[in-house]
Amino acid sequence: MYQRFIRQLLPKCSHNVIQAKQEIKWLVFYINNKYNNNYSSSNNNCSSSNNNYNNINYIDNNINYSDNINLNDYNNNNLSIKEIIEKKFSEKEREILNELIKERVEQSKPLQYILGTQPFCDLEIITKPPVLIPRWETEEWTYQLITKLNHLFSINNNNYKYNNDDKKYNKKYNKKYNKKYNKKYNKKYNKKYNILDICTGSGCIALSLANSLPPNTCQIYGIDISDDALSLANLNLANLNNNNNNNNHDNNDNNNSNNNKMNNQVKFSKLDILQSSIEEIKSLFNEDDGIDLIVSNPPYISPMEYNNNLDPDVKLWEDKCALMANDDGTEFHNRIAYLASNYLLRRNNNNKFHDDENQEIIIKKYQIPQLVMEIGGSHQVEKVIHYLNKYHFGWTQIWKDATGKERCIVARL
Amino acid sequence: MVSIYSFRPIFLIPSKCLYYYSAKKCLVQNCTFSSVTTKPISSFKGSLLNNKVIERLEKLTTRHTVLSKELNSQSLDVIDSDFLARNSKELSDLSSIVIPYQEMKKTQGELDEINMFISDKSGDEDFKKLAHEEYQETIEKLKSLEQSVITALLPKDDIDEKNAVLEIRAGTGGEEAALFAADILNMYERYALLCKWKFEKLSIDEDSLGAIKEVTASISGVGVFGNMKYESGVHRVQRVPATEKAGRVHTSTITVAILPEPTEADINIRELDLRIDTYRSSGKGGQHVNTTSSAVRITHIPTGFVVAIQDERSQPKNKAKALKILKARLFDMERNRVHQERSYARKRQVGTGDRSEKIRTYNFAQNRVTDHRINLTLHELENVLNGESLQTIMNGLKIFYQSEALQNENY
Ligand SMILES: C[S@@+](CC[C@H](N)C(=O)[O-])C[C@H]1O[C@@H](n2cnc3c(N)ncnc32)[C@H](O)[C@@H]1O
Q1: Could you give the CA distance from residue A233 to residue B246 in angstroms, rounded to a whole number?
Q2: Reduced to 3 states, what is the DSSP secondary structure of residue A33?
Q3: Residue B196 and residue B169 share a domain
Q4: Domain-terminating residue out of B95, B124, B153
Q5: What's domain A136-165+191-246+259-412's architecture?
Q6: How does pLDDT run across B255-264, given as a tens digit for each residue?
Q7: Are A313 and B290 within 8 A, CB to CB?
Q8: Least buried of A226, B222, B254, B386, by fewest C-beta within 10 Å?
Q9: What atom of ligand 1 comes closest to residue A138's alpha carbon?
Q10: B204 contacts on A by Cβ (under 8 Å)
Q11: What's the pTM?
């Protein structure tokens, strides 16, 4: 049966057996968690003692079932996926697995819509059709951006070393430290760093920045035209707030943090970035003094590409309006560059979000941009650079992704 | 006048010392050590502290007394922060040595008294029995105190505080070895849990029966490498495999490697030296496709090291894991090179040298685990394999290697 499932999935996995096995594994864990809560709950019991990082247990190949804690059984808890499907699963569970694989193969339903989540940076982002599923390329540059920004926030604060890897592990420690840190920080810099995520979709970029930057350093805004996207983004926000709440029992002594369970505040609003007037756009922010950083993964597939060669997984399931853009897919980049330069970004004379000479140095040293836009590949570089130059961006750079493709264009005025 | 001891929580207890005690405490809280039958590593007559070391300890004690007096004579109101900064560090370093040393001397005195009781020919027999019990307890206490003194006396190796990458590979013995690799993985995972460390599997190469050909995990927490470094080497299992019908005992082996995990500052890999392969890296990527293939393979071109990771659904995370392993391997290689270049490296440095050495045997029929380096045998296989008694072996190794180091220190 296992072999049959693998064969069925192969066409969806570029005929790569390892990948087909992986997809089955994730489906099996999904079914296990959803329909058989007693496994996962006892697993949680065991991990709650050592903080939050164990909630990623499910990705492990050998599931430690409820007997995880039972010392006598430690020899038997290595079950292969094949054995789970064929021995441990009930008839009903096998039937569900069969149905899900059918959906995946016959209807081209993306795995992430079936599983309902996609990991993104340190978060589990909820996914729902037709809102765009976060891509690994986006996750990759978001990580990179977070690393750069953390340099900016650690100015004058050598003690505060923010390490993403250890973040969950050190959460408790950080919490204590942050209180001290915040007091110091807020006294000195009263202005927050304003970030705007244009075309936010599921909210993945905005929420990851909010979660991974030091507490109370930023105010983050996300905008999107689609109601589906906005409600999903807000669902993700609520979900993260709840999760954080559950995990931190020592939250109570943080009286002032009622709506502040994420490290930084995020606000999502509905807006058509192409059509809206400047007044409408500006009215969304409390700040008069402008935005410090604009990030965007706007639609960038040209109508020709959209009609001719697009995976059915993408075309049949994801919102057309999340993918397709005019002018060879660069319509949004043009508009965003224009708005950013003329209206949105903090201007030169008060360029700094706080008064610190070091800030200039850090920005230069780590090449921290003011504008980050994802692109579809090398074919769009020339056009987008042209827009940026037209709107007086003095410094531009291209970020490549792990496969060596031009993935982002970043710029400063 | 304020007694110097009221300062203790602030600067007299060195972090290392605190860790030592807290680690011990956490283990005790989390599991009950079953009574252990071990051959004594060294009877107390053969205390590890020789005359030279004791001479040095006495000097340090004098210095400690002088410094404490000076610090004590400072009034709290007009405290000179420069003076404090200069001296409190030294005092705190000294205290970590002197306090257990004083305690040790006191305990030694108690031991002498007990000895007198025991050798008193006219004494009551019941009384003597009691004295014998007390004697054993006091010896244990002395040993543990001596260990604290030695730990504090030896130069601290920063590398001991690092996190570690654990690699387990099935060796000779086919599937039986792979099954044993799974047992050992479980042992370290449970042990990490008891130590309140974070244990994260990075990659796993598994047979269908839950037998592990190769597994890599990252362990992070306080003092991980310092504790785990003695685990590197060949572990041997002797048991009747489940599949063996004739009931013959098979011997198979696995290899364990513990690599210190380098920090950013320790190692710098040039982007250019890496080749990163992903499935389906042809095509446009980005919004055009929605791939679920998150597998990543990184090749370090100059050395030819290859690391492939596929376990996470997130490709950047797989990449980060692969890089972590790659960096640990490169760092380890570099350490070995430096180590070998040193002409004075007569002594095998633990955690770097020979990983093909057979260090431990797990014998199921005899219910025993023997560590061959220190000739220590525990007759409680089960408790070792579930991580609980592993600390006993590790302590033994620590004492052994530290006293070895102490003999080689030049005073
Ligand atoms: C490619 S998706 C990006 C989603 C998300 N930021 C991510 O990286 O996964 C583009 C998003 O832009 C939104 N969008 C399309 N046209 C828009 C417009 N005119 N104004 C604002 N948002 C728009 C879509 O609803 C969609 O959510």
Answers
A1: 63
A2: helix
A3: yes
A4: B153
A5: 3-Layer(aba) Sandwich (3.40)
A6: 999 999 998 8
A7: yes
A8: B222
A9: 8
A10: 60-62
A11: 0.72
